[in-house]
């Protein structure tokens, strides 16, 4: 049986859609994953921004408006008297200065000691260096509460109670494990050839640390400082345990001054004081957030 070939019109393939039509078809399909991601980001932003916005708005309300109306409603009138009263009722300026001194002193110890320890463990290397690093990391799981009574007894014997050092030393000590981990993770990905070339040129370990390791670690330093500053600035437990006089109170302790007799609290002045104390950290974080993100990523990305 002889079969005849199909006509040319039948053999011709169906016309393919143009690239523009294909792109329109892809755009028309609902991207569920992208939509859910955007909704989740919006919800997270609202959950983070709304308390700060409410705090700022409430700090501008009058006492009568806040006490008699809905605390979550918009203010009927705005006033700056709450900020003036916040500085007059409490020793807010001294509290901010004390918190600044403690935060800077603790961060200085954290950065210097953390970098030196990580440099010795990760770059120089020595026998049992991995064990030493593991011991440092074990400090992350140690709760600060177990050190309060021993530290209080030791401070009372050597005369360190009611001093800046009584707060700076334990804050730096409990933050060292995480800083050593961040610095050592970053040092791990600095090319060894860089250190070898510096050694061939006659540079010793101290010169290598100062001229190579330190400049390359600036983003990690910013990350360590910002992460620890948040906890140190808001620390209450060490300051409440070791500070005995009004002149050395930090911000968390100073906010107790706004609680009056019989538990009566000047809420609008308290919110104004909180706004004043939160603003420095927010400004610093907004300015240095890119460096902080790069510092966090540097330990996970080689190069």
Automatic annotation (TrEMBL):
It comes from Sinomonas terricola. Belongs to the binding-protein-dependent transport system permease family. This is Carbohydrate ABC transporter permease. It comes from the Bacteria. The lineage of its organism: Bacteria, Bacillati, Actinomycetota, Actinomycetes, Micrococcales. Its main location: membrane. Keywords: Cell membrane, Membrane, Transmembrane, Transmembrane helix, Transport. The chain crosses the membrane at residues 35-57, 96-119, 131-153, 165-187, 208-233, 267-288. Residues 96-288 form the ABC transmembrane type-1 domain. InterPro entries: MetI-like (IPR000515), MetI-like_sf (IPR035906). Residues 1-27 are annotated as: Disordered. PROSITE patterns: ABC_TM1. SUPFAM superfamilies: MetI-like.
């Amino acid at each position: 049986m002889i079969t005849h070939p199909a006509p040319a019109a039948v053999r011709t393939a169906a016309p393919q859609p143009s690239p523009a039509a294909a792109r329109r078809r892809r755009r028309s399909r609902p991207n569920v994953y992208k939509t859910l991601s955007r909704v989740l980001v919006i919800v997270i932003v609202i959950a983070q921004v709304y308390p700060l916005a409410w705090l700022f708005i409430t700090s501008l309300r009058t006492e009568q408006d806040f006490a008699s109306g809905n605390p979550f409603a918009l203010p009927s009138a705005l006033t700056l008297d709450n900020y003036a009263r916040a500085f007059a009722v409490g020793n807010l300026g001294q509290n901010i200065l004390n918190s600044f001194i403690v935060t800077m002193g603790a961060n200085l110890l954290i950065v210097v000691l953390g970098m030196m320890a990580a440099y010795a463990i990760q770059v120089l290397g020595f026998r049992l260096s991995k064990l030493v690093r593991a011991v440092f990391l074990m400090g992350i799981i140690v709760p600060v509460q177990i050190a309060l009574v021993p530290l209080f007894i030791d401070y009372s014997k050597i005369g360190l109670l009611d001093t800046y050092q009584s707060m700076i030393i334990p804050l730096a000590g409990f933050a060292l494990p995480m800083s050593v981990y961040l610095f050592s993770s970053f040092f791990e990905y600095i090319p060894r050839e860089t250190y070898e070339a510096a050694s061939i040129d006659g540079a010793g370990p101290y010169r290598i640390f100062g001229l190579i390791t330190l400049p390359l670690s600036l983003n990690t330093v910013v990350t360590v400082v910002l992460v620890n500053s948040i906890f140190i600035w808001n620390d209450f437990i060490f300051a409440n345990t070791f500070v005995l006089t009004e002149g050395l109170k930090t911000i968390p302790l100073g906010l107790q001054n706004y609680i009056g007799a019989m538990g009566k609290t000047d809420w609008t002045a308290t919110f104004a004081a909180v706004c004043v104390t939160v603003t420095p950290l927010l400004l610093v974080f907004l300015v240095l957030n890119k460096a902080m993100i790069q510092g966090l990523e540097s330990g996970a990305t080689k190069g």
